[in-house]
Amino acid sequence: MYAITRFKELYQELSSLNPDDLGLLYADDVVFIDPITTHRGLTAVTQYFSALTEHAESCQFDIDNVIACEKNAQQITHVVTWTMTLIINKRRPTITLDGITQLRICNDRITYHRDYYDLGEMVYEHIPILGWFVKKVKKRLAT
């Protein structure tokens, strides 16, 4: 499927993305959900990506697996597993985290995109004091 190939190419080096290219991948009425927020429509998704890529020095996704799905109630057509490597700037530590994306593809465009990842690992653990506390709680729960 061509949409999956475009998805992989686009996310390989997300920080060099031209936001106008999102129209080649996402449908006009796309719903994009991640642990931070929900965006409806290509314009909203394009604005979101513009803001994200503006603040990142580098953002790369290593796509581990793309799994085509059988018919299901949510009409998810593919599940993608990935590892993201994010560099905000050289003074901050590199953030690496694993995640999963659910996709619904219709007419070779993504109409639904939902990301699942550990927001604490991505954000909270890198905030002074709060990061220490989040790591402490995780460690305590693991024992």
From TrEMBL:
InterPro entries: NTF2-like_dom_sf (IPR032710), SnoaL-like (IPR037401). It holds the Pfam family SnoaL_2. Gene3D superfamilies: 3.10.450.50. Residues 8-113 form the SnoaL-like domain. This is Transcriptional regulator. It comes from Alteromonas halophila.
